[in-house]
Amino acid sequence: MKTKAIKKNNSDNVWIYNNKRFIVITVAVMIFIILLLQINFNALLPIKKIRAQGEFINVTEKMILDAISVDVHGGYLKVNVHHLQTKIEKLPWVKVAAVRRVWPDSIVVTIKEQKAYAVWKSNSLLNELGEKFEPKSIILNNLPILNGPDNLNVKVMSEYKIIEAQLNTIGLSVDVFHLNARRAINLKLANSIQISLGRSEYQLRLKRFITAFKLSLRKYSENIEYVDMRYTNGFSIKWKENTQAATAENVLRGVLDV
Prior knowledge:
One of its GO terms (cellular component) is membrane. By secondary structure, the chain is α/β, with parallel strands linked by helices.
């Protein structure tokens, strides 16, 4: 009886051993096959073409290829399109990028460029939302210059748009918009007139300036250097040198009721 029991135990041990060995071999073979297939797919389906599309003004296809070419590896199935997208969106003039595979051997990149609406502190640009981006070089191209405390670029852009829209109704535009640390607004217009609006009720003060400009200031705008709107019911004017006294008197008569 003992002999039979020993034989049965040995038989069970052999069966367990053989099954474990079978499982190990099977797993190893599967891993080998997966690796082999992956290697073959990478060899059979390499990325051969990268195509960029979009409205190119400040970004070129070469800039995109230079940014991602070293990362296009691993074949069609393995290339990391999300990583490529992240790298492309780090290019200064790229606002958003989309990267997709195109069977059997291509990558297609679609970009949307940033559009510069203003210069921020002379060393950055702002898009229409006031978001900052920093190209290597800045060409002003008649863009307004906006200044303000750090991290308030979105607020500054918003207030600039409000003021610019109102000034445009009387044929004026802002060259320089400055929001100082006390949140007071100062402007320099395209016709060189400087305006202080202060930090409170600036829209009411701007409206008062627009009314005065329509009534009388427009005619004498070439003689005006600075307008201070920070008064409760009026404003003061600093005239350019050599301005005739009669000019100031005529303007005063024209705006007494503003």
